[in-house]
Amino acid sequence: MQNKLEVWKLAHEFTLAVYQIADLLPTKEQYNLTAQMKRSVSSIPTNIIEGQARQYKKEFKQFLFIAKASNVETCYHLFLSKELNYISTVQYEQLASMSNRIGMMLSKLIASL
């Protein structure tokens, strides 16, 4: 799948990175934190691409707001994982940096519509 939006590309990379981290979480978190983290992170590029396919800019904006909320949710799951010592501070900071970039890009895209 190809998409010309840079924010979608970064969100896809973020999704891949978070999936890799989520798969390393303890087995006891498989149906809780791991599943929740995967759902929220995959929602980011999914909502961007779905919104882009909509007919009206207003609909696209609404999907971008949902993507933005999913991004914040994912960042919290990563923070919680760090606090529970499931991931390192370095891993958290790298992923949080990606999340911050995605958030800024989504804000700029929303403002441009």
N-C termini distance? 24 Å
Number of domains: 1
The tally of helices reads: 4
Low-confidence stretches: none
Task: Summarize the model shown.
With 113 residues, the protein is mainly alpha-helical. 81% of the residues lie in helices and 0% in strands.
Quickly list its features.
113 residues; mainly alpha; de novo design (two linked rop proteins); 81% helix
Q: Can you tell me about this structure?
A:
This protein has 113 residues and is mainly alpha-helical. It has one domain: Up-down Bundle (de novo design (two linked rop proteins)), CATH 1.20.1440.60. The protein is 81% helix and 0% strand. The mean pLDDT is 96.
Please render the helix and strand layout as text.
Blueprint: H1 6-22, H2 30-52, H3 57-83, H4 89-112
Helix pairs in contact: 1-2, 1-4, 2-3, 3-4
